[in-house]
Amino acid sequence: MLTLEHPLQAWLQVKHSLKFFSTETSGVQSIPEFVAGALVDEVQIGDFNSVRGAELKKDWIKFFEDHPQHLEWYSLQSNDSHHFFKATIKTLRQRFNQTEGVHIIQRMNGCEWNNETGEINGFNLYSYDGEDLLALDLQTLTWITPKPQAVLTKLRWDAQKTRLELNKNFLGYRCPEFLKEYLQYGRSFLQTAVLPSVSLLQKTPSSPISCHATGFYPDRGLMFWRKDGEEIHEGVDPGEILPNNDGTFQLSVDLKLSSVTPEDWQRYDCVFQLSGVNEDIITKLDKTAIRTNWKKPTDMGTFIAAAVIVLAFTIITPVTFLTYINKKCEKSKV
């Protein structure tokens, strides 16, 4: 069991990733037609849009000053993708028999590398108007689509052998090389895992007990309730991982009290796990540990603390557009 009052740092991450997200939008005048972003281990290193070009995050400026060819490559690829996506939207509108209006094509491509086994997994995924469109099968070097309207596009892309080989080379070789370079440069701030503080919260006496973890990084956390050491699902309402303003993340999972008898409270606990960290954070279901704003506060300090806790629990930080694209594309993997 690991009990924490403050976040700790760990250097145990095994699986690393380099992801490129690209979005082309038609029919909207108020935003750039094309936007793209690059992330290493879910940390954004820079972005590009069709109005101002490339922009780097502060931590990465020195790397790209020392390796200008990386920035030149990224800017060239982004400009090429902008024109390719624009033409693809026109084709897809015909395939789907659509009017002009607002249409969006998105791509997530990149690679994952396991630094223990050396395993490399490349991926190249497309979505159109929010739905899965095409995915590259690197084993057969063919495109896969769930959409009948995209079959003609699939066949045309399958016939582009040179482009397929370029994809294979980039995803299997060049992308992992980039990733290793970025990890070497950013090892002081990329490989740091931060564990959260975990609290038990309750809004009213009849509300579920919420096990709330906040301040963890990266966003590869898992949390669940157990009874007698076994994970349970009945009476449990899991939440989604949400971003905090400081770049860390939060997660909650609720337990309905109607499914827990008073004599059984001691048999329940909440478990938080963070990818790459071997020890779990285990929080026992204990009435005295529950933080709430429905009990009468004993002093002003207690009242203020309770108010802050409830405010932190109820406010959801807005998710950035890039995070939305990331999560959507993660669900699009085939």
Question: What keywords describe this structure?
Answer:
globular, Murine Class I Major Histocompatibility Complex, H2-DB, Chain A, domain 1, six-stranded mixed β-sheet, 34% strand, alpha+beta, 334 residues
Principal-axes shape call:
globular
Approximate strand percentage: 25-35%
The gyration radius over C-alpha positions equals 23 Å
How many domains make up the 3D coordinates?
A: 2
Look up the CATH topology of the largest domain: Murine Class I Major Histocompatibility Complex, H2-DB, Chain A, domain 1
The CATH architecture designation of the largest domain is 2-Layer Sandwich
Helix/sheet category:
alpha+beta
Question: Could you describe the 3D structure shown?
Answer:
This protein folds into two domains: 13-189, MHC class I-like antigen recognition-like (Murine Class I Major Histocompatibility Complex, H2-DB, Chain A, domain 1), CATH 3.30.500.10; 193-318, Immunoglobulin-like (Sandwich). The chain is 29% helix and 34% strand. The protein has helices at 61-66, 68-95, 151-158, 161-185, 187-190, 300-314, 321-331; strands at 9-10, 15-26, 34-40, 43-49, 53-56, 103-114, 120-128, 131-137, 142-144, 193-194, 197-202, 209-216, 221-227, 230-231, 236-238, 242-243, 249-255, 268-274, 281-284, 290-292. The strands form four sheets. It has an eight-stranded antiparallel β-sheet, with helices on both faces. Strands 11, 12, 15, 16, 17 and 20 form a six-stranded mixed β-sheet that branches. A four-stranded antiparallel β-sheet has the order 14-13-18-19, with no helix packed on it. The longest helix is centred in the first third of the chain and has 28 residues, at 68-95. Belongs to the MHC class I family. This is Major histocompatibility complex class I-related gene protein-like.
